[in-house]
Amino acid sequence: xxxxxxxxxxxxxxxxxxxxxxxxxxxLRRFSxxxxxGEIVFGIADLQAxxxxxxxxxxxxxLTADWIADFLVATNEVATNAxxxxxxxxxxxxxxxxxxxxxxxxxEGVWPRAEGEPELEPPxxxxxxxxxxxxxxxxxxxxxxxxxxxxxxxxxxxDRG
Length: 161
Fold this sequence. Notes:
It holds the Pfam family HATPase_c_2. It comes from Spongiactinospora rosea. GO terms for molecular function: ATP binding; protein serine/threonine kinase activity. Keywords: ATP-binding, Kinase, Nucleotide-binding, Serine/threonine-protein kinase, Transferase. This is ATP-binding protein. This protein is α+β, with helices and mostly antiparallel strands. It has a single domain (22-29, 36-116, 131-159), classed as Heat Shock Protein 90. Helix content is 26%, strand content 24%. It has helices at residues 47-59, 65-85, 132-139, and strands at residues 22-24, 39-42, 90-96, 100-107, 142-148, 151-159. Strands 1-5-6-4-3-2 form a six-stranded mixed beta sheet, with helices on one face. Helix 1 (47-59) runs antiparallel to helix 2 (65-85) and helix 2 (65-85) packs antiparallel against helix 3 (132-139). It is globular, with a radius of gyration of 15 Å. The N and C termini lie far apart (31 Å).
């Protein structure tokens, strides 16, 4: 706790980045045609299986324990958001894009804001919710939210280095 309210503890690897957040409110296909090892379809009761699926994929890439922990936290937050605030069922795809690992979560829900970006500012003092997308945005190297009549896709990029 700091004077004036709550702030996340400073850790050298976490810097509040101001990279462009890509938000699209157009109709979209369920997934872009990118290589993937597979996908997992899940509901709220399956979130442990989602974490296990994502963990198995990135462990096979030989990444560090800290890198894997960051990836799993961000991916889990987006997956949870999809089934809690979306259509109740979602899909996760993970793939290796060379210098980056990509996680993409799709659900048939529509982003509630007609215009503007997702709330990616730090939460206020003593938050009890509303931190999932902010956390994913903070931990990931890149973040894109696309929504339209077909549903919502959140894509996260994680630099391997």
